[in-house]
Amino acid sequence: MNELKSYTYTVLRYLHDITTGEFVNVGVALFCPSEHFIAAKARPTYGRITRIFPGSNGEYFKQMMQHVGRQFEKFGEEESGLISMNARTVMEFAHRAFPADDSSLQWSPVGSGKTANPATTLDELFQRFVMRYDEKHDRSRNDQDVWGVFSKALAKRQVLDRLEEKKFVGSVDEVNFEHSWKNGVWHCLEPLSFDLLEPESIRDKARKFYGQIQLVNDASESFKLYLLVGEPTHKDVEEAYLAARRILEKLPVECEIFTEEQADAVSAKVADEMVHHDTDTGTKLVEPGDFS
């Protein structure tokens, strides 16, 4: 029986939009010091990237993947360097190939394990983290795709035009909601698509949104959130979606979560609240009979 050797690995991620934080795994690097093994595998084509993120520069992406391959081939061919200098983790090589900065290519936190064959393990990790979703040719949906479903229902109730943009400013950050109205406190409709192809993208999107809300929790004006959620199309990311829901349920502000199947229900709720507000204030902007 072959002796198992310790290794570390990191996954290379492509972030099309750093603001939203959504990413796709595009490569894996692995380092097994006892075997003097350092290597990486990167996605050789850009078809999936341009399907998921229309408008991305496919040729530039391909050049970057070729750069990764050349860099790690060079590391493996070096007779001296980091291996002989007792490198501890794969990240010491990864950051030589791509430094840690705010570019569209980012390395994941280091993972580790034991293997009898580092090359085989690298192939397995590449299949697991990068290639397993390639059979899915449909791109993920973004927040605007999800908003389209809800906006149609709101338009039917004749309340879409009453929504306005509202910014909340906290002590260290600010957040802007494009679809809001005021009834005592601000009510903010926020579409969030979790119909993404990568499980970790789903979790990270929920974590990032939670962080944004946490940073404006001390804003001078109160607000209530209506999260309009696009659920995943693919069942193999269901666990990640449920984890994202649990994160959102912990938001530090009053919040209700609605899925696309509930678009009519949430539009009716919004319309009803607006009608009651108009009645209370003596405003006559919307007639209840218009909602039949």
CATH-defined architecture of the largest domain: 3-Layer(aba) Sandwich
Rounded mean pLDDT is 84
Q: What is the total tally of β strands?
A: 10
* CATH topology category name of the largest domain: Trna Endonuclease, Chain: A, domain 1
Distance between the termini: 74 Å
CATH class of the largest domain: Alpha Beta
Largest sheet: 5 strands, antiparallel
Beta-strand content estimate = 25-35%
Given as residue ranges, the uncertain stretches (5+ residues, pLDDT < 50) are 283-292
- Structural Rg: 24 Å
Number of helices: 8
The coarse overall form would be: elongated
What structural class results from the helix and strand content? alpha+beta
| Pattern of helices and strands | EEEHHHEEHHEEEHEHEH
Please indicate the count of domains.
Answer: 2
Helix content: 25-40%
Oligomer: single chain
Describe this structure in words.
The termini are far apart. The protein folds into 2 domains: 5-131, no CATH class; 143-291, Trna Endonuclease, Chain: A, domain 1, CATH 3.40.1350. Helices cover 37% and strands 25% of the residues. Helix 7 (238-248) links the parallel strand 9 (223-230) and strand 10 (255-259). It is elongated. The protein has 8 helices and 10 strands. By secondary structure, the protein is an alpha+beta fold. Strands 1, 2, 3, 4 and 5 form a 5-stranded antiparallel β-sheet that branches. The longest helix is centred in the first third of the chain and has 20 residues, at 58-77. The protein has helices at residues 47-52, 58-77, 91-97, 118-131, 143-156, 199-215, 238-248, 263-281, and strands spanning 5-15, 23-32, 37-42, 105-107, 111-115, 164-169, 174-183, 185-193, 223-230, 255-259. The model is unreliable at 283-292 (pLDDT under 50).
